[in-house]
Amino acid sequence: MPEKHTIDPVDNHPFDGLLLLSFGGPEGHEDVRPFLENVTRGRGIPPERLDEVEEHYHHFGGVSPLNSLNREIIDHVEQELHTRGRDLPVFFGNRNWHPFAEDTVEQMVAAGHRRIAVFATSAWGGYSGCRQYHEDIARCMQHLEQRGLAEGVQMVKLRQFFDHPRYIDAMVDAVDEALAKVRAHGRGDRIRLVFTAHSIPLSADRSSGVDSDGALYSSQIRYASELVAQRCGFSPIDDAASAVGAHAADGFYDVVWQSRSGPEHVPWLDPDVVDHIAAIHGDVDAAVVCPIGFVSDHIEVVWDLDSELQQEAADFDIDIVRTRTAGPTADFAAMVVDLLEELECGAPVARVDSTRPGGASDVPGGVPALRGCRANGEPCAQGCCAPRKRPAAHGGARPGA
């Protein structure tokens, strides 16, 4: 059952603007290389890996699907606000490409907005998934201060939503749709459900969350995957000996990773999804691949899964059906507005807990260890998810500016 408790509103006044804050992506061939250099500055990504990823973007005309999908999310959020009788303007800003968040926030303030809610398009904790968005907000505020525009401005990040009922519902629906496609193909006897998320270095995962816990990012991914799998009738593969009833009949699920980009000698979260499909090909006829770690179709989804993984699976005669992502839907937009109203009026905080004995809810420290942030979007603890040392993302002039 969803956990319900009440939080204190930020203050007695509603927000007067909503910023959708995202990663960003190129929108033409000429944008690709400077965008990638901006994203990877100081991360030690080998040049040959940049060349490889650049070709992926050029394969799609130099255009990431992300920006257009984020604009779809904004359209749905505006419609949901209107349905609820709200006249709240929604703006779009990115960390790594136009429209840059600093420029968008300056425009918002110039238009008279002072209490700005920030919805970051990441469901997860950790440095890249959460803390870096707080750094983006701090950079926006510094930008305003440098221009004498910061007085009276408040920016508040909405909380992580990896276990929000609407997010879990959306992923359950997506998995069910994909399962129906697999069965329509006549490949429904041995189906594996495979959840994927972006891999990160093990050191980064260990530093995610508070010092006493760590591994916040990977724990949240596994937890959300379990919530979806339970609803769809799948059990963890390590429960094969004890699975009974519908779980045994419908199969098992795995959590794997994708899209690693660092030096080969640096250990990252594994196994990689392509390697995993190769390893299990003798045990399954089909796999439903759910990119639960991605709100929308990043280039990593449409290339790494829809191209590379499909090619690998074809070699082993495995039917791969990739689920849709949750982002550009009306239900997802309703979740965004729910999160907004949690802060404005102390609405109940909706979360889903695992019901499987011995499941993610029984990890050391319990589910609260997975929360990753306070209900008002603030970091879960002082100094949590400290970044690996590297230069600022926008050192000097912005590429392409």
What does this structure look like?
The chain has 401 residues and is an alpha/beta fold. The chain has a domain at 165-322: 3-Layer(aba) Sandwich (Rossmann fold). 40% of the residues lie in helices and 12% in strands. The chain contains twelve helices and nine strands. A five-stranded parallel beta sheet has the order 6-7-5-8-9, with helices on both faces. Strands 2-1-3-4 form a four-stranded parallel beta sheet, sandwiched between helices. The longest helix is centred in the middle third of the chain and has 20 residues, at 127-146. The chain starts with 16 loop residues before the first strand and ends in a 56-residue tail after the last helix. Residues 1-8, 240-250, 358-366 and 390-401 have low confidence and may be disordered.
CATH structural class of the domain at 165-322 = Alpha Beta
Give Rg in angstroms.
Answer: 21 Å
Q: What's the order of the H and E elements?
A: EHHHEHEHEHEHHEHEHEHEH
What would you call the shape?
globular
User: What level of helicity do the residues show?
Assistant: 25-40%
* SS content category: alpha/beta
Percent of residues in β-strands:
5-15%
The low-pLDDT segments are 1-8, 240-250, 358-366, 390-401
Largest sheet, in brief, is: 5 strands, parallel
Distance between the termini: 49 Å
Named at the architecture level, the CATH assignment of the domain at 165-322 is: 3-Layer(aba) Sandwich
**How many individual β-strands?**
9
CATH topology of the domain at 165-322: Rossmann fold
Strand order of the largest sheet: 6-7-5-8-9
Q: Given the structure, what is the number of helices?
A: 12
Query: Average pLDDT value?
Result: 86
Protein name: Coproporphyrin III ferrochelatase
Subcellular location: Cytoplasm
EC number: 4.99.1.9
Catalytic activity: Fe-coproporphyrin III + 2 H(+) = coproporphyrin III + Fe(2+)
